[in-house]
Amino acid sequence: MTQTEIPGPVSTPRGVPIMAAKFHLPRIRQPVVQRERLFALLSDGTRGPLTLINAPAGSGKSLLASSWVSAERAPGPATWISLDEDDDLPGVFWTYVLAGLARGGVAVEDIPAPVAEDAVDRRLLMRLAARLSEAPVPVVLILDNAEVLNRQQIPDELDFVLRHAGGRLRLVLITRVDPNLPLHQYRLEGSLVEIRFHELAFTLQEAAELLSGRDVDVTESAVLAFAYRTRGWAAGLRLGGIQARHLGDPALGESDLAAYFRAEVLDTHPPSVRDFLISTCVVDRLPAELAAHLSGVRDAAVTLRALAQARTFVDVGDEEDDCYEYHPLIRDLLRAELRREPCGRARRLHRRAAQWLLAAGRVPEAVQQYAAADDWLDAARVVVGHLPVGYLLTAPPSDATVALLAGLPDGTAGPEAALAAAMLAWRDHDLTECQKYLTCAEELLAEAANGDGITPLKLGIAVTTGALACSVGDPGGALAAATTAQEIHAGQAARGAVVAPSTHALTLWVTGYAHLDLGDLATARQILAAAARASNVPGCEHLRARCLADLSLAEALSGSLMRAWDTAHRALGIGERLDPPTDARCLTVDTALAWIHAERGDCAEARAHVERATAILLVRAEPVAVAVLGLVRCRLLRARSDHAAALVALEECRTAMPSVRLPEWLARRLDVAEAGLLIAQGQSEAAARLLRDCGAVANCDGLLTYG
Q: Rounded to two decimals, what is the model's pTM?
């Protein structure tokens, strides 16, 4: 007898004909990634009575089970039933179960079909369990869309049949929510296998295979980024892969994804939960208290815990802080929904989040929220007033706040915004812009009323002025700015305020570099060493590397070559742990090592360090380093008797930075070096004139080593 000829119920208790399509496996659309690891999980589950496949919409639940059945991996006859809302009636439900089992070859024709929709005779369940217990092989019953079974009666009846079928019934539930079965008992008995979102999520290899099947040109890095963004969510990968031609585009497949997310995920929740999700999506890390603040839901922790337990794209972050995280792609889709809300709601939520985060001491996240609200003035005020003064000068290139403030619109009002722009310009080596914004900040500060925010502004202007003075070769201006900063430090200390270690170290660095520029090497070494010690705290690694680099150069120029070598490699050691290293650190370290190798007569190594440092000079110039590299290059060329090229190198050194003044003591050494070259070419009179003009003694014995 063929499957369609096997007798069974032909209509529900109300007389509605059985819909045969509900017994058909879902259509499998190519391409399909055969994931053996999941087949193995499902096969392992059907060795026992109960398998639960629970994950959000679009996770590939039905595809997994139907592919598994199609691959004939079931341990016995498999009955598939696609449930809908009308099946949440015991009489209707069990009618379909009997009809499905009959189609699958289970001898249930003598078991009477239910006669009422809202109840079934207990004897029907007992006879069905007994018949299943007599089956020669296990019977697999797969219920798709099992989340429609909301009434407690049907799960209780399923539990009864499952426990009395003699281990012959293997129930597979495909659902978006946990069923009302006593799952805790099955877990204790070891008779439940659960396949959830984390198991269903595509691995990197599986994601690459799926996307390549969509004729999308993918790179390994693109797959990695996209898989992270979707967290392996099958729907996200499939819908994105259909439309994407360039996976670097963050908007790939966004319209389809948004429509699917809205219909299959968001709209399946009650309106109150939908509003909760949308109002709390503005932050990346979501403490329960912040969720309550944003949503107005007092028991937000309960809601988040329930969502996390239901695996609806909500993960537990830090349990100690009662913190949660939305999956990245879902968070983006929720934010897209928020942008569809009435004008101004998103901005209000971002500002509320910023205020809460600032009060909680989570300053970088507060800055992020103010920026997201397009409130750049408050973002700048938070950076200047709540982060260590000079933070934007010393933070690593990868710092999120630095990257965020790079979007500060030109012309943002307020002295804090002008100061932040000046600091960012200094980081970008745009000294003209730095001076422009510093002047603006000083003018706006003069107009501002005295208050708690004035002191950080004054201190920030002082240290930024000092850093700029170091960069343009103005040691007097740098020392004056450092003195102002130290006076502000003293005033803060007198009021009981604590100066951040990074701010103190930054002031010391400005002072030490100014003395290096002046040629006061003993003082420079002492102060730069103190700056390196002061910056030996978490978060100051880039500043510490810079202090050690400049200290190594001061030691090398003083003739302490071994100490300079050790200090340079300490700076390099820090650099190896940073990502990425700063140009200033590499420039100064390579300059110091070039000098050391030249002094030791190792011309090849000296030349290699000169080339590396010179490449950095194309984007960032440092007065001391420029002059020292000119001297080393001159010495290397003179060692090859290429006097003409050495003279060109000296001239290039003098003209390399027209807006930057070279240190006077090093400029004199450049003149002496040129005089030595002129003497070597037989131009003694020209050399004498040059030495007289620069105030040096006109005799060969007076020439410095690098002449």
A: 0.74
